Amino acid sequence: GIAQRILSTYPAEEDKDVRAALSTYISDSSFQVTSRLVARASSTKQKKTFQYFFTRVAPKGLGKTMGLGAYHSAEISYAFDNLEGNGLTGPQPKPEPWDATLAKMMSEAWVRFARTGNPNGGALTPWPAFEPKSEAYLEFGDEIRQGAKLRPRQLDFIEELTVLLRKR
Predict the structure, then answer these.
(1) 167: Cβ–Cβ under 8 A, 6 or more apart, which residues?
(2) Which H or E run includes 109?
(3) pLDDT tens across 106-132, in order?
């Protein structure tokens, strides 16, 4: 049944694995599948559609200290090159050198995109446009790298599950 398919798609072999599996399922079903659907739709009308996947877990940040991983909105302080935070979470630890570099590169890409409609340039790894066939994206994590077809097995399953649940 559906429960078994969820468990096989998001496995947790031991109790300690449940939190990560659930977090990944929630991320995929709430954010990733929607992002992919929007990119697919946008790319049919707008050839300069770009998708990213943020995976950086700062060694001293909330994602690490609270076990949240690369949680939703963790990329915002990087995109705005403001790793000191917004003051809501108290004093922030001094960022690691890579976090400062990643924040600078992300922020510059966002500014270029706002100015020109294309985030590429500078020292940024070339960011391929999303096309329905390739579903290219750029990952911002422990390195910046190109990818294609983000988590296809999981996201295809979420789309299928959504259709199944609507029929019930």
Answers:
(1) none
(2) helix 97-116
(3) 999 999 999 999 999 999 999 999 999
